[in-house]
Amino acid sequence: MNQSNQLKMTVYTALFVALIAVGAFISIPAGPVPIVLQNMFVLLAGIILGPAWGLACVGIYLLIGLAGLPVFAGGTSGIGKLFGPTGGYLIAYLPAVFVTGAISKGLKKNITTDVIAMVTGSLIVYAIGVPWLKMAVSLSWQKAIAAGMLPFLIGDGLKIAAAAFIAKKIRPIIK
After folding, report:
1. The whole model's pTM is what?
2. Residues of the domain holding 24
3. How is 47-84 classified by DSSP, letter by letter?
4. Which phi and psi (to 5°) does residue 28 adopt?
5. What is the CATH number of the domain that holds 152?
6. How far is 84 from 88, CA to CA, in rounded Å?
7. What sign has the CA pseudo-torsion 87, 24, 113, 108?
8. How many domains is the chain partitioned into structurally?
């Protein structure tokens, strides 16, 4: 990668870190796990930046939140968030963005493959986040799924549709 492309990707990565943080501020309390837009931007980062830059983006986002900048849901921060009910979801963003980016990069870039990639990324978030929620709050599996996944499915579907549309519009501009 030449210097110009590296600079461009660094700027896009910084932009997505900011978008993920802004998405976390748009937070609706819904039990132990709030409804946020940050997951849409995490998945979109995978689609637009690819697996490596997407992973770097989410890693930077998590590091600045763990360091104390208020970038997590509702303007919170700190390492204590990893041990709470939402810690699994935050950690899950790392493999989710990487897999989403890898699927998108490996397949033809169109809305269908973007949706497949983002659904897969969302499933990863739930696969890590729900068991973490179960352990952190001492819930049964049924209650963990009811509190940590079911209320979010329709919204996640809408966010994936919006992100696929955004990706379709952004790709020609950034290439």
Report:
1. 0.94
2. 3-174
3. HHHHHHHHHHHHHHHHHHHHTT-S-BGGGB-SGGGGGS
4. -115, 115
5. 1.10.1760.20
6. 8
7. negative
8. 1
